[in-house]
Amino acid sequence: MTRPLHWALGVLALSACFGSGTVERVAAGLRERQAPAVAATSGTSEAPVVTLQQDWSGHYSVHPLVEGRRLRMMVDTGATLCAFTQEDAERAGLRVSERDFRRPMSTANGVVYAAPVRIGEMQVGGITIRGVEAVVLPRGRLGTSLLGMSFLRRLRSFEAAGGRLTLRG
Which residues of the chain have pLDDT under 70? Predict the structure, then answer.
């Protein structure tokens, strides 16, 4: 009971300080942050098109099927390869051992050793790519799995404009 009361008092305080327009924008941002990005699929069976909506932080999240398992990934055009957290890799049935972490990778946080893997099948909406080169990073070294260029460069095209990322299979 006290939690809703605290929220109500917080909203009232914000509206007194900043005006209702600011509060509405903050509330809209919170709703967007909590709602998953929606992928819309269109196009013909020969050339499927998937459109992703930018989230509140400016990123594009996607929920592909990886080896038949649904994961959450962030699209990263700066990542050469798709990169999986060790936890996501395990969910997708990608088994790696400690000795597999042998490939040095340069990241914003320095060098990390990753385990190279090949994904049999990744599906985003109606787009399916087989044989995707990827890496698994050790526990705690990656916050969110990344959909990198090893997937994106195999598409016919992709384009970001107007808060939308369009993938053409």
Answer: 1-45
DSSP code string of 97-111: -GGG--EEEEETTEE
Domain span holding position 9:
2-33
pLDDT tens profile 30-43: 434 434 445 566 65
Provide, for the chain, the percentages of residues in helix, strand and coil under a 3-state DSSP scheme, each rounded to the nearest 5: 25, 40, 35
Does the CA dihedral 69-31-167-73 come out positive or negative? negative
Cα angle: 168, vertex 88, 131; to 5 degrees: 45
User: Looking at residue 45, what is its pLDDT?
Assistant: 57
Contact 54, 70 (CB under 8 A): no
The whole-number pLDDT of residue 100 equals: 98
Q: Give the single-character DSSP code of 35.
A: S
Estimate to the nearest angstrom the gap between the alpha carbon of 63 and the chain centroid. Answer: 7
Q: Are residues 84 and 12 located together in one domain of the fold? A: no
Tokens 């990656």, residue? 142
Are 16 and 90 contained in the same domain?
no
